[in-house]
Amino acid sequence: MPSITHFEIYKPAEPCSYTGEKLREIMEKIIAETLSPDGKDLSLKGYCIGQNGMTIICRDERVAKVRRLNLGGNRVGDMGVKLLAESELFSKVSWLELGGNDIGPEGIRSLVGSTTLKKVKSLNLYRNYIKDEGAIILANENQLEKVEDLDLAQNEIGDDGILALSQSKKFPELVSVALDNNFSSVEGKEEAKFGSNFKKLQSLNL
């Protein structure tokens, strides 16, 4: 009898490919299982809900009290982030985890221009595909002015992106930034340390 691998045992639910009524049924079950009793914490890490799942979540009234939203590892992509950014149900969210979601520059543009995610203080975007273009959009267009902690590790960001972020005036409350495991040079990192946005930080990880 072949052995069961660790992956098979812990394989997450994968509604990514579902649509219609099947998708609705699965997403309603997932939300019921992962939403905290007080409705303030929704942890969907690793469920692979995808863009399709986001269309359901962003219309489910049960999430209207959520303050901590973990969407890590869900492959929601740029369109999924756009749905999130436009959903008024998430207006109370202050802690947002979006790591490992195939998010690129356009997703970042939707996110930072959101009028409903204004309370977000902690924003985790590690392991996406933001690149220089997305980092520059973040630096120049961010309207989420309450952000204190920002994680941009593993995003293929080079010198141009890191320098733009270091000089940004769009993060008045910023305290901590993680930019490790990106594509910037030693020289770029050294220059970024002296940017007006980074000099004030309590924690800077380049």
Detailed description of the structure:
There is one protein chain. With 206 residues, the protein is of the alpha/beta class. The protein has a single domain (6-205), classed as Leucine-rich repeat, LRR (right-handed beta-alpha superhelix) (Alpha-Beta Horseshoe), CATH 3.80.10.10. It has nine helices and seven strands. The chain has a seven-stranded parallel beta sheet, with no helix packed on it. Helix 4 packs parallel to helix 5 and helix 6 (131-141) packs parallel to helix 7. It is elongated.
Draw up the topology in text:
Elements: H1 6-9, H2 20-34, E1 41-43, H3 50-57, E2 68-70, H4 77-86, E3 95-97, H5 105-112, E4 122-124, H6 131-141, E5 149-151, H7 159-166, E6 176-178, H8 186-192, H9 196-199, E7 203-205
Helix pairs in contact: 2-3, 3-4, 4-5, 5-6, 6-7, 7-8
